[in-house]
Amino acid sequence: MDWSLFWVFTTFSIYIGIAIWARAGSTNDFYVAGHGVHPVVNGMATAADWMSAASFLSMAGLIAGLGYGGSVYLMGWTGGYVLLALLLAPFLREFGKFTVPDFVGDRYYSGAARLVAVICTLFVSFTYIAGQMSGVGIAFSRFLGVTNEVGIFVGMGIVFVYAVLGGMKGVTYTQVAQYCVLIFAYTVPAIFISLMLTGNPVPQLGFISDIKGEGVSMLEKLNDTVTSLGFGKYTDSTKSNFDVLCITAALMFGTAGLPHVIVRFFTVPRASDARLSAGWALVFISLLYTVAPAVGAFARTNIIESVNEKTYIAAENYEADAAALTADGGTPSPAWFANWEKTKLVSFDDKNGDGKMQIRGPAAPDGLANEVTINNDIYVLANPEIARLPQWVIGLVVAGGLAAALSTAAGLLMVISSAISHDLCRRTFFKDMTDRTELMVARGAAASAVVAAGFMGIYSAKLAFVAQVVAFAFGLAAASIFPVILLGIFWKRMNREGAIASMLFGLIPTFLYIWHFKIGAGKGAGADQWLLGVSPEGIGFVFMWLAMAAGVVASLVTAPPPQDVQDLVEDIRVPGTRQPHGLADAGMAPE
Known about the structure:
This protein folds into two domains: 3-299 and 390-586, Sodium/glucose cotransporter (Up-down Bundle); 312-357, no CATH class. With 591 residues, the chain is mainly α. Helix 1 (3-21) packs across helix 8 (148-198). A two-stranded antiparallel sheet has the order 1-2. The termini are far apart. 68% of the residues lie in helices and 1% in strands. The longest helix is centred in the first third of the chain and has 51 residues, at 148-198.
């Protein structure tokens, strides 16, 4: 039986079935699932929405490649939910709107502020969804044996079916199923490999335990292995402490400013439920995040042992050529490498002409250059194959990777479609639009966003790893969206001029900095050319403070907000003491 085919088609049938069962019949269902989602269910859906391809596929790969340096992603992405639960979630739910631009437009009594918020939302969401579609392409490319680009086109079709049909209501319950799939798919192989390497069934403890029969800890052995090949210590970081701080903080504050995460807290009945949802989301997220360091260490160990110094066998006629080499007493390169070579995500360049695959770092003591290129994003998917786990486990991991990428992609599509149909069309340019027309526009916007996201995913895959592309989205959110929401909740003197200045001073410099060093003239530059030595992944934290300062200064030199707006800010800071703002909570479309 082809287990990959079985798991993928079984899980996708469940997702599409849920989307049909929970399809949206109104804008209230399409945008916020009717405000009727239970906090535990919403916490699980939020975890799936947020644990994207970056978490499932790329984070462990970055930890495998960077070692201790990859911990910034663990700290930043989990810490952000604490900020979200304490500072934003209950107050935004108390406000009772559909979207982040909805909050900005009403809180700052300005159509211009709403429009700028829409632009910020689209920048963040499209950057984020590009990383997801790249992850979808990686998973499908291995599953179908096609290139990454073809895999992305297949994923586009799947997302189109259940996101456009079901809206937020369908996406919410689909994400619950996807969370169950992705967490099972992530932990089962980790348990298997932990038992094989260390004899400990708990992965979180296995990667700090001794290797079976060797009397040396796994991390100590991994350190010795990578340093002998010319790499830095696995337990050391190559980044400066200040850059680590900035990246971690950008991911934290970015998490608290992500539109597709914030909108999840509009789906629960009460403000208190929003705080509970954030707490439950942290519980569900921790089940994956505490395993990720073990998965990264296991993968790095297994890949080096299975590939280094083995004789290369091409993917064509692999079985016959490998059998012949083995009969002659040689050791062929592994089958998993040949399988992934078809996707162009791994490659071998025989620089010294000896036919053997050398994995080497920049300080290799034997002077050999590195000949093996492995995309960090394949570590999790390839790990079960490398460890020679049962086929049903390998197939399950493919389904889990797709669940992680598609769940977040669907949530982002809801944000993009609502920003265009609700905030841009109905609340800005076509205020007499009917509820039915708005729903049609929302579905059309989601369909168009799927196509745009697919092409962006193809392009982004050539620039950086999935987690790095996603980190850029977090930086944009930290600099442009988080300040205007935080100040809007906790400082009633913040006015529309301050909001517009804050968003623009956050979005534009952050985007230009990332573009310059990742795409433009500064591509490939090192820390000596970065502003204050801060990488593009962390620059959002620096410009976040510029955005806050711009908002405060602009507010202080212009007229204060109307008194009713200041009273509203006072009200929403005490959840449960007022009726939800606007008509969204009554189950009707806003005026």
